[in-house]
């Protein structure tokens, strides 16, 4: 199997991606990240939200990679996906304060629980550790530096000797994998893991 190159068309890269080729994913990621992020930032005016939405779009690309081979205009598909995610996120913002208050209360309660709830929390922590250990080495390292040590993408890129875009790609793929592996846990618990570090 030949490695994809930057000269490959989107259609060719989507075919390789459908076969699980991570290099094709990385090329598409590098090809479209800046454009999707910029358009998202234009609409939201919020850099953090724009980055989250762009990551969500690329996580969706990885998760649905086998279903994307028929797309004629990938760039348009990515822009529409990002726009839809923005609208969805904005609809939820009205209840965001209430939800954040709920999450804070949920995690305070979990810290003070004993018995079955404490066992559940320890089990979750163990499952997360196992899931992280199953990630490919580069994704694992990037995820741990980001979530457990609190480093930003720039710092991780310097430590790992790769580009910031590559770090974003590693994190998007790692989060997509972890979401799938840990999908049987409740959303608030997963948010605590992925956002709480």
From TrEMBL:
Transmembrane segments: none annotated. InterPro entries: RNA_pol_sigma-70-like (IPR039425), RNA_pol_sigma-70_dom (IPR014284), RNA_pol_sigma70_bacteroid (IPR014327), RNA_pol_sigma70_r2 (IPR007627), RNA_pol_sigma70_r4_t2 (IPR013249), RNA_pol_sigma_r2 (IPR013325), RNA_pol_sigma_r3/r4-like (IPR013324), WH-like_DNA-bd_sf (IPR036388). It holds the Pfam family Sigma70_r4_2. Residues 28-94 form the RNA polymerase sigma-70 region domain. The lineage of its organism: Bacteria, Pseudomonadati, Bacteroidota, Chitinophagia, Chitinophagales. GO terms for biological process: DNA-templated transcription initiation. One of its GO terms (molecular function) is DNA binding. This is RNA polymerase sigma-70 factor. Gene3D superfamilies: 1.10.1740.10, Winged helix-like DNA-binding domain superfamily/Winged helix DNA-binding domain (1.10.10.10). Belongs to the sigma-70 factor family. ECF subfamily. Keywords: Sigma factor, Transcription, Transcription regulation. Residues 126-178 form the RNA polymerase sigma factor 70 region 4 type domain. It comes from Chitinophaga parva.
């Amino acid at each position: 199997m030949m490695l994809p190159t930057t000269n490959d068309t989107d259609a060719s890269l989507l075919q390789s991606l459908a076969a699980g080729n991570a290099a094709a994913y990385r090329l598409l990621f590098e090809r479209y990240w800046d454009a999707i992020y910029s358009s998202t930032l234009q609409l939201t005016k919020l850099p953090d939200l724009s980055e989250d939405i762009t990551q969500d779009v690329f996580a969706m690309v990885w998760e649905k990679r086998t279903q994307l081979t028929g797309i004629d205009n990938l760039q348009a598909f990515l822009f529409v996906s990002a726009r839809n995610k923005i609208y969805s996120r904005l609809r939820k913002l009205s209840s965001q304060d209430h939800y954040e208050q709920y999450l804070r209360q949920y995690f305070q309660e979990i810290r003070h629980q004993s018995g079955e709830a404490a066992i559940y929390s320890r089990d979750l922590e163990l499952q997360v550790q196992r899931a992280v250990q199953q990630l490919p080495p580069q994704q694992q390292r990037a995820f741990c530096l980001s979530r457990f040590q609190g480093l930003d993408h720039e710092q991780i890129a310097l430590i790992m000797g790769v580009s910031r875009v590559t770090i974003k790609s590693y994190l998007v793929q790692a989060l997509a994998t972890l979401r799938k592996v840990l999908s049987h846990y409740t959303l608030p618990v997963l948010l605590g893991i992925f956002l709480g570090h």
